[in-house]
Specification:
Elements lengths: L1 E4 L2 E9 L4 E6 L4 E6 L27 E5 L16 E3 L9 H14 L11 E3 L4 H10 L4 E5 L3 H13 L3 E4 L13 E5 L5 H10 L11
Parallel strand pairs: 6-7, 6-8
Antiparallel strand pairs: 1-2, 2-3, 3-4, 4-5, 8-10, 9-10
Helix pairs in contact: 2-3
Length: 214
Amino acid sequence: MAFAHKQRSLVGVVYNPFTQHLYSAIRGHGAFLTAPSIPTSHPPTNISSISDADIGKYNVEATYECRKLPIRSPPPQLSDLSQAIVAVEWGNERSGSNWECKTATFAALGGDSSTRGAMVHSLRSLGSAALNLCAVARGDIDVYWEGGCWAWDWAAGWVILEEAGGTVVGGNKGEWEPKVDARRYLGLRAGAGKEIVEEFWSKIKGKLEYEDTD
């Protein structure tokens, strides 16, 4: 859930029901993670098989803690892409020029120096733009490159990431000030500077081009 004004995200809330992690941010007031302090316990599907004497051990109530993001403060500096964990998504457009740009760029990020690749530490996909951005805000993922998603996929995570000290630029080279509905983005955690942006842009093979949301 997000609120944006004049192409700028101002409020963002992202909830992961599987981990019970709630991420939130208000522009100018920081980003926060509210999460259980202990793992929750869930009873088996066939609850009728549990005796009255045993049912109590499944009723674990977690307490919740609110932590300011990023988790590590100050965040470690990211020296180059070879040290980076990068989030990418495949999307549902699996042919055409944008698909060719993505797959060629994935290869350039993963390739070694003999192919002029960045040889990033790993490529990850969480399957959700919002959760990818929150992972970058936490500091679990260093960089997230995306093309083809919509404003509502990015708006909440955008303000959460920036309020955690991160940066959002465009998914194509030279796009330093993207609009919230640009549909192509590059997000970096706190501690990843301008030189990481430029190194990443140098590995993009082609150009991402999508229709506007208008």
